[in-house]
Write a structure and sequence with these properties.
- The structure is a single chain.
- This protein is α+β, with helices and mostly antiparallel strands.
- The chain has a domain of 84 residues.
- Helix content is 25%, strand content 14%.
- A three-stranded antiparallel β-sheet has the order 1-2-3, with no helix packed on it. A two-stranded antiparallel ribbon has the order 4-5.
- It starts with 12 loop residues before the first helix and ends in a 33-residue tail after the last helix.
- The N terminus is likely disordered.
């Protein structure tokens, strides 16, 4: 069967040249480039790649600003893109990365460290679900003081990184690290889309949520075939 090659610009070029990152940010927030007069209205502002190294999770290329009025002078709050904003930029459902990571860190904090310390003669095996034991046995942890109960939070690093000096990630950093390493479903579908013509349509397996409408154009107007 003769199959035409994937055209990386087909159907996307016009959208990419016109769509800014603004719609992916929380209400009231805008890209830092909007502070430049010529970029304040009509200029297209793109999101940067989410690089996965620890030093680039929150750097000055990931900034957005919020305008606030104080004493007749205009001031801005500046923060890096949130986990939720990055999920939306990648076309992922809200909480796709954040919710399971929140659950994992809560389980490890409470059942792998807090409860074993509070109960003499008990270990994480008495409290932590068995399918999470490998985190406690194989991963490295650091602890940071926190102003809310249980007054500490953990940072995690996997020994599988193969580095002499491991990078430790808090919950928010770990979410951003995974998003930086990840591929969203729209990207994979676009890269592999032309392979569909090699198979009978009846042989293509559907997966749960394959008709999900991603919130960021051009995927917001596209559905899987």
């Amino acid at each position: 069967m003769n199959c035409s090659p994937v055209d990386s610009h087909s159907g996307l070029k016009d959208v990419a040249s016109a769509v800014s990152v603004d719609s992916c940010l929380e209400e009231g927030w805008a890209p830092i480039a909007r502070l430049i007069p010529e970029a304040s209205n009509n200029m297209t502002v793109k999101s940067n790649a989410f690089l996965a190294s620890l030093s680039r999770i929150d750097d000055n290329r990931m900034l957005s600003k919020y305008k606030t009025a104080e004493s007749s002078s205009t001031k801005y709050i500046v923060e890096c893109y949130s986990v939720a904003e990055r999920e939306k930029m990648m076309g992922l459902p809200a909480g796709y990365v954040e919710k399971p990571l929140c659950h994992l860190f809560d389980e490890l904090t409470k059942n792998a460290f807090l409860l074993p310390e509070m109960n003499r003669g008990k270990s994480y095996r008495h409290f932590l679900p068995r399918d999470l034991w490998h985190f406690r046995k194989q991963c490295n942890f650091k602890f940071h003081a926190h102003d809310e109960p249980p007054f500490f939070k953990i940072a995690i690093s996997s020994p599988l990184e193969g580095k002499s000096q491991l990078a430790f990630y808090t919950q928010e950093q770990y979410c951003k690290h995974l998003l930086g390493n990840g591929w969203s479903i729209p990207v994979v579908e676009h890269l592999l889309g032309r392979l569909r013509c090699l198979f009978d349509k009846n042989a293509l397996k559907r997966y749960d949520g394959y008709t999900y409408n991603f919130p960021w154009e051009p995927y917001a107007s596209m559905k899987s075939c």
